[in-house]
Amino acid sequence: MPDRVVLAYSGGLDTSVAIPYLAEKMDAEVIAVAVDLGQGGENMETIQKRAIDCGAAESVVVDAKEEFAADFCVPALLANALYMDRYPLVSSLSRPLIVKHLVTAARQFGGTVVSHGCTGKGNDQVRFEAGLAALAPDLQVIAPARDFAWTRDKAIEYAEAKGLPIETSKKNPFSIDQNLWGRAVETGFLEDIWNGPTEEVYAYTSDPARPRDPDEVVISFARGVPVALDGRPLTPYAVIDELNRRAGAHGVGRIDMVEDRLVGIKSREVYEAPGAIALITAHMELESVTVERDLARFKRGVDQRWSELVYDGLWFSPLKDALDALIADAQKHVNGEIRMTLHGGRATVTGRRSDDSLYDFSLATYDTGDAFDQSLAKGFVQLFSLPAKIAAARDTRKD
């Protein structure tokens, strides 16, 4: 029996060409695995059939939308995950889930090799292979674009020569990756960082400058997890999906940035993440009301490190597991509701309420009913500033 290669299959040009190429190059049968992460676009049955038409021995489609939302997007939300304080880990979150299902398929079909379509210049090769190293170190990994110097021009020529049932047009200049949590766009004229993105770049969001009435939404959280919109109980998937539409209609979540890739180069990326940005904004605001000061300060550093680990492909790592435990514990009191206005490219918090709130009106008010004992403040300030006062006196003596 020939070897079996399990291929992470998107249905696009590169991975479609990889099916007959890997079969010939390795004298192997190819098992195509497509994972539905809520990315929209083509029907998954069409993608499944295309893999067979391109020569796959088996074609598997996994509906992982709810799993992706609950087990990957929600943890990112609890960590307020923004790489470089801006990028909500759109592609980074999907890779470990895809890896999980690639390993499942390898075990099911007797695969000995796993393949992906990543190049040697990007982060995704690390994310796929670090995940595979953690979950199935016995599996060999082949990346045709990287390992066999497989360029887009070569892929188009090969597809046309083989008569593969795929679109080989060069009209679309962009490289696009999308899922429920957002959409990432790169290459083409965006590689010149002086060029501004045009409206054709965007698909999840409308022009924020277009006149429209504001949309007000109330998001309910339980232990940091979004559980309802406007009082309607929903699954995490349904919450994100609806906010993608509602926030996207107002142009919320457009990000144009030059980011530091793991491989050491800087890359210009344009992201759309309307639901993610709205939810992270709301979650951070509810934490500001319900999480004690020192824990909140410490968690901000934890959130940043968590984001870096996931961006770097270390979802399956001891440090991330430990940080997950701390983040989960910090969510015990993150319960309540946040009211937001979606308009003009912004998700603006306008109201907060929680039974676990640490905000005490009687302590915060400057009006009648103030319960804060200001007579204690003078001694506190003197003691708090004492170390700096002593150091300043020493420095003065030495001058």
UniProtKB/TrEMBL annotation:
Biological process (GO) annotations held by this record are: argininosuccinate metabolic process; L-arginine biosynthetic process; urea cycle
Native source organism of the sequence: Nonomuraea fuscirosea
Known PROSITE patterns for this protein?
A: ARGININOSUCCIN_SYN_1, ARGININOSUCCIN_SYN_2
Q: What GO MF terms are annotated? A: argininosuccinate synthase activity; ATP binding
The UniProt entry's sequence similarity note says: Belongs to the argininosuccinate synthase family. Type 1 subfamily.
Residues recorded as binding L-citrulline, renumbered to this chain, are Y87, S92, N123, R127, S175, E259, Y271
UniProt keyword annotations, A-Z: Amino-acid biosynthesis, Arginine biosynthesis, ATP-binding, Cytoplasm, Ligase, Nucleotide-binding
The record's listing under Gene3D superfamilies reads: Argininosuccinate synthetase, chain A, domain 2, HUPs, Single helix bin
Sites binding ATP sit at A8, Y9, S10, G11, G12, L13, D14, T15, S16, G117
Primary subcellular site in the record, as a coarse category: cytoplasm
Q: Where are the transmembrane segments?
A: none
* Subunit organization: Homotetramer.
* Matches recorded under InterPro entries: Arginosuc_syn_C (IPR048268), Arginosuc_syn_N (IPR048267), Arginosuc_synth (IPR001518), Arginosuc_synth_CS (IPR018223), Arginosuc_synth_type_1_subfam (IPR023434), AS_cat/multimer_dom_body (IPR024074), Rossmann-like_a/b/a_fold (IPR014729)
EC number(s) stated in the UniProt entry for this protein: 6.3.4.5
Pfam families in UniProt: Arginosuc_syn_C (PF20979), Arginosuc_synth (PF00764)
UniProt name for this protein: Argininosuccinate synthase
Single GO cellular component term: cytoplasm
Q: Which intervals hold domain Arginosuccinate synthase C-terminal?
A: 174-390
